[in-house]
Amino acid sequence: MRARFVAGNWKMNGSLRANMGLLDALKAGLKKSENLEYAVCAPFPYLGQVSAALSGSAIAWGAQNISEHDAGAYTGEVSGAMLKEFGCRFAIVGHSERRALYGEDDARVAAKFIAAKHAGLTPILCVGETLEQRERGETDSVVGRQLDAVVAAAGAAALAGAVLAYEPVWAIGTGRNATPQQAQEVHVFARARLAARDKALAGLTILYGGSVKPGNAKDLFAMPDIDGGLIGGASLVAEDFIAICAAARR
Ligand code: PEP
């Protein structure tokens, strides 16, 4: 059975006080569960707080971004080695907000994926199409291109053990989720695309992300190729995130 996983992406939200309340509630609500993992991806300044608060709990943590460089004159950047040094497990790479707002193209996303792997972190690689691309019937070609760029740069074997997140751009933060069938179709496509390069990648954990809420999580996670979720807004509300995690339990 493929591993199931729910990760929260806090984006640029939080404060020491608010985080503490959220983390306490998550620790109380999320216990170790067979074949289901949870993580929260917090802004850089809060990673120390998150690491300390979650130590010994069932909840892992990750970063929302990572530099493609190891070290040097890259003001404002954070390397994989720095993250790893104090216990980070995951790094989101290729989130659509970074692609759209910070000009991260496929080549840079691939370089960040490689940097995460080199540091011993698990990349959560995000792919997904815009509404215009979907309406033009380009979903598969866009997602295929995004995946191929990482495979070409990192090699197919490097994807083993990584996490893929299908996040249609039109569903992120909009309140409009992909239907379970729409998401399932893209997950099947992505899984087949990767498995054609390396058979082992048929077992990759593939998350759906985009306006997942307690009310729609169960139907999305019931689809055979949806292995969990990458959760933005709802991950800031403890009871919603806990309910979404419960919906991912098999
Ligand atoms: C995200 O930021 O990855 C995301 C899926 O956001 P939301 O759940 O708010 O749509």
**Level-2 CATH architecture:** Alpha-Beta Barrel
State the strand order across the main sheet: 1-2-3-4-5-6-7-8
Major β-sheet annotation = 8 strands, parallel, barrel
Q: CATH homologous superfamily? A: Aldolase class I
Helix content: 40-55%
As a percent range, the share of strand residues is: 15-25%
**CATH C-level category:** Alpha Beta
Overall body shape = globular
Helix count equals 10
Q: How widely separated are the two ends? A: 10 Å
Uncertain runs: none
Query: What radius of gyration results from the CA coordinates?
Result: 17 Å
The number of domains: 1
CATH topology: TIM Barrel
SSE string, helices as H and strands as E:
EHEHEHEHHEHHEHEHEH
Number of strands: 8
Name the structural class: alpha/beta
Please tell me about this protein's structure.
With 250 residues, the chain is an alpha/beta fold. It has a single domain (5-248), classed as Alpha-Beta Barrel (TIM Barrel), CATH 3.20.20.70. The chain contains 10 helices and 8 strands. The protein has helices spanning 16-29, 47-54, 80-85, 96-101, 106-118, 131-135, 139-154, 180-197, 214-221, 238-248, and strands at 4-9, 36-42, 59-63, 90-93, 122-127, 163-166, 205-209, 228-231. The chain has an 8-stranded parallel barrel, surrounded by 6 helices. Helix 5 packs across helix 7 (139-154) and helix 7 (139-154) runs parallel beside helix 8. Bound molecules: phosphoenolpyruvate (PEP).
